[in-house]
Amino acid sequence: MDIKVASAGITKVETGAMVVFMFEGEKRLGRELGALNRKLGKVITASIENGEMKGRAGELNVFHSLGRMPVQRVAVAGLGKKEEFKLDKLRAAAAESCRALKQNKVTDITVLATSIADGRKFSQEDYARAITEGAMLGLYSFRKYFTKENDFKEVKKLTLLSTSEDGVAAIKKGSNKGRIIAEAVCLARDMVNEPANYLTPAAMADIAKKIAEDNKLEITVLEREDMQKLGMGALLGVSRGSVQPPKMIIVSYKGRKSNDIDLALVGKGITFDTGGISLKTAAGMEEMKADMSGGAAVLAAIGSIARLKLKINVTVVVPAVENMPDGGAIRPSDILTALTGKTIEIISTDAEGRLILCDALGYINKSKPKAIIDIATLTGACIVALGKQCSGILGNDQSLVDRIIESASEEGEAVWQLPLFEDYRDNIKSSVADIKNGGSGGGGTITAALFLSEFVGDTPWAHMDIAGTNFTDRDRKYLVKGGTGVPVRTLVNLAIKMSGGRKK
Predict the structure, then answer these.
(1) Which of 225, 231, 241, 495 has the fewest CB atoms below 10 angstroms from its CB?
(2) Is 177 contained in some domain?
(3) Which of 285, 299, 187, 177 is nearest to 250 (CA)?
(4) 127 and 219 share a domain?
(5) pTM of the full predicted structure?
(6) Are residues 127 and 205 in the same domain?
(7) Is residue 5 a contact partner of residue 63, using CB atoms and an 8 Å limit?
(8) Are strands 247-254 and 313-323 parallel, antiparallel or unpaired?
């Protein structure tokens, strides 16, 4: 999709549809919407007066111009109450309006990027970024494996409109940032939506290499032999049941002159999870192609961080393996030895995510990063606790956890902190090894995080469980059925805050 910024009179733009925004309860139209209303024979004010159009969040009214002006349609999207306005409401309104117009086969959309709010909270750049992100994320589709397109139409052109030259520079800057971040989210979605027979651990490593090549990043891919030398017995144990060789992917971005790692991002990369010998039920197993969502998120995030030229050093680690149940697979009761030397009793081979993550955490922790965040579709218990619209977060450093929650809140990616109660550590004590990979007595998300905490030492660390939020079964706001790309935007926003801006 071609994205442009233009300056012109609102009634003189030649476009398939013009999207404008309206707050709930607004009686007096702004200058731009008023001009459109007059060209439409005052149908907008009539719709407001008779109660058909209220400006509520999620509301969309489309009016045909019937040749009265070059704008073929005017789409008025509601933002809800002005005093409750957040950028995420603008992002959602842009997504839903553009998606609705696409369904009506509109291929050229213009969005008014000025006169959105009173300007007390957000800048013009912020508005442009939110509109661009919303439009791109809402219009996303994964159609790679369709052989017939029939009458499917994509939006080919998106224009952000400023009605004066003064706003163009800020809109261009915000739109460019939004495009970079949205493209990263869409890359993560593409990876999650790929079937597991195509997105193998090796294919995941190839994507990482492409990201590194495009952004001039350092990359290392550890092979099975490398992992054996390092003693990554936990990760290698999980990979034993698959013919697909495991890969440990390490990508580094240096945004400042130092060898210190300011932020390490570790993403779970199980490219398909059958549960191993502790086999999952058949119902819903097809969604286990998405068990590499954490790995996809961190790879996409580092590409975006590099494109934004942030003044921060970031390293990403993705342990990528399949969890399959062949004759060589690990069994419940087996004991594995992790890279750190800690021994692990296997209670369930379906608790494999923590096994590959513990070796990845142990590996990166040797480099003494200032902070580590791991992202994983780790526990069904997190879905039980928080549902499918909120990720869980736990950690050993409250300051780090707070910064992640703040970054997520600003991006509209819901996160809720769960307690890391030390008393629960007894639930993962083993009678035959240092630790066991399955807890008892409930609190599965907490005991999984406590397991991971054993491999980070005193390094500030946080764990994000995205088991419920990585995938959606329906279109909602700027989410589209399939992989969501959560929490790419949170991670990029955190990196922006930690870096203080762009690299000089």
Answers:
(1) 225
(2) no
(3) 299
(4) no
(5) 0.96
(6) no
(7) no
(8) antiparallel
The catalytic residue positions are: 280, 354
Dump pLDDT digits (tens) for 198-236.
Answer: 999 999 999 999 999 999 999 999 999 999 999 999 999
Query: Which pLDDT tens digit goes with each residue over 168-205?
Result: 999 999 999 999 999 999 999 999 999 999 999 999 99
Q: 168-193 and 488-499 helices cross at what angle (nearest 10)?
A: 130
CATH of the domain at 267: 3.40.630.10
Residues 6+ apart with CB under 8 A from 148: none
The phi, psi pair for 230, rounded to 5°, reads -80, -15
Return the amino acid letter for 133: E
The secondary structure of residue 311, as a DSSP letter, is S
- Given 165, 198, 230, the domain boundary residue is 165
- CATH number assigned to the domain comprising residue 111: 3.40.220.10
Phi and psi, residue 98, nearest 5°? -65, -40
Among 272, 259, 275, 362, which residue's Cα sits nearest to residue 317?
362
Question: Which domain, by its residues, includes 414?
Answer: 183-499
Q: Which helix (H) or strand (E) holds 214?
A: helix 201-215
Torsion of Cα atoms, 489 then 494 then 497 then 498, to 10°: -140
Residue 354 near residue 448 (C-beta atoms within 8 A): yes
Quick one: residue 478, left, alpha or beta (phi over 0 = left, psi -120 to 50 = alpha)?
alpha
Task: State whether the Cα torsion 356-359-364-368 is positive or negative.
Answer: positive
Instruction: Quote the longest CA-to-CA distance of the chain.
Output: 80
Cβ contacts of residue 189 below 8 Å, gap of 6+? 140, 142, 480, 482, 483, 484, 485
355 contacts 249 by C-beta, under 8 angstroms: no
| Upper half-sphere CA count for residue 191 (Cβ side, 13 Å) | 35
Residue 504 lies in a domain: no
Instruction: Please report whether residue 319 resides in a domain.
Output: yes
Helices in 308-416 by DSSP H: which ranges? 353-365, 380-386, 398-411
Burial of residue 133, with CB atoms counted within 10 A of its CB: 0-12 exposed, 13-18 middle, 19 or more buried: buried
Nearest Cα residue to 249 out of 190, 290, 278, 208? 208
Q: Which of 67, 72, 1, 59 is nearest to 25 (CA)?
A: 59
Number of domains in the chain: 2
Asked whether residue 141 falls in the same domain as residue 226, the answer is: no
d(CA 127, CA 121): 11
Mean pLDDT of 303-325: 98
CB 371 within 8 A of CB 397: yes
